[in-house]
Amino acid sequence: MSSGIPVRLSGKDLYAHMLAILERLVGIDTTSHRSNLELIHYVQDLLSGNGITSHLHWNEEHTKANLVATAGPAADGDRGIVWSGHTDVVPVEGQAWSADPFALRVTDTVAIGRGTADMKGFIACCLAILTQVEHERLTTPLTLMLTYEEEIGCVGARRLVEEMRTWEGKVKGCIVGEPTGLRVVVGHKGKQNHRLTFDGEPKHAALAPLMPNPIAAAAAVIGRATALNETFRTTGPHDERFDISHSWINIGRIEGGVKPNIVPQHCSVEYEVRSVPGHDCDSIASELTRLATGEVQEDMRAKSGLAEVRAERLSDTPSFSIDPAHEFVAFVQKAFGAADEPQFVPFGTEAGLIWGHGRIPAVVCGPGFITEAHVADEFVSLDQLQQCLDHLRSLPLG
Ligand SMILES: [Zn+2]
């Protein structure tokens, strides 16, 4: 009979250690557009203090890095159980914080600061354990995986996919610690952001019948999106595990034109696709791309050789779905003493990449609630942090 993870500190001291780490993590501003290296180096130092070596995977500009570190009996490149978190946080600009977002405030019941719920609270719990784990008593390795730029479309995690695939057979599974109130989550929708840009020539409106109209061209594509949405709503595909059981295209932003007496030169449309598992965001977006850069562009070019339509994908968070009866899901449910059925959530995470692309069985489970994330005075309850520590420690790896 295996016991939990062997750590040197007692419960109370481990909790205090975790809060001290959380204070440091929150104190480093890792908004997605900034470098995360100060945080990564802090983590690297913490782990090396307990004899754990970190490997960094850099972005092209060498301004950000993912970190992978394994503790325990890592013979043959074994990774065991992976704990995964993103290091970046969303911006605080335009939000009414009641104090410095990057200075942790701890009350009797909550810890307040940017990233406490999403997801530095989870990372602090992982680090508290890893910095105190007794390697020689671990029977299964423990791996920490930290990424950059999750909030702008899983950019860092995508760079780890190749490496994750080499772990196949050497990894039991991955816990992605996004805030789920510590319930075990087995699925979410996929999400992509796209931009279409329509360009023509600015002319006097008297000549309008002879000229391509970028706004009208954009409207044609929006019309198709509306028709597609209606098909998704009526004929699916439907996945009844979600409150909104079908995919959807949200036209989120449109911009173009100057005034009624000028033929517009330009129009751009930004939209988001949210798709149920098995209904590929790419296939939905490609319908709109094909229409815009095919038929619509041809019509525009028939009137002006300068006309051009461009399509860009701005971000991509794949959907996530693992069989609730999967061995790893059952393992986590049992270790965490989860009474509820595995859940489905409306927000995206890196789990879709980790399981769908990296082939590592995954669940999403972390302290705090999504409603407490991304807002002014973001917080996580101390109770959730304590429970998270207890849950992680209860994994039968000792
Ligand atoms: Zn997150």
From TrEMBL:
User: Quick check: keyword Calcium in the entry?
Assistant: no
User: What UniProt keywords are attached to this protein's entry?
Assistant: Hydrolase, Metal-binding
Gene3D superfamilies, from UniProt? 3.30.70.360, Zn peptidases
- UniProt GO molecular function: acetylornithine deacetylase activity
The record, for CDD domains, names: M20_ArgE (cd03894)
Family matches, as InterPro entries: AcOrn-deacetyl, Bact_exopeptidase_dim_dom, Peptidase_M20, Peptidase_M20_dimer, Peptidase_M20A
Top-level taxon of origin: Bacteria
Domain Peptidase M20 dimerisation, by residue range, is 186-293
EC numbers for this chain: 3.5.1.16
Q: What is this protein called?
A: Acetylornithine deacetylase
Q: Which organism is it from?
A: Streptomyces tamarix
Q: Which gene encodes it?
A: argE
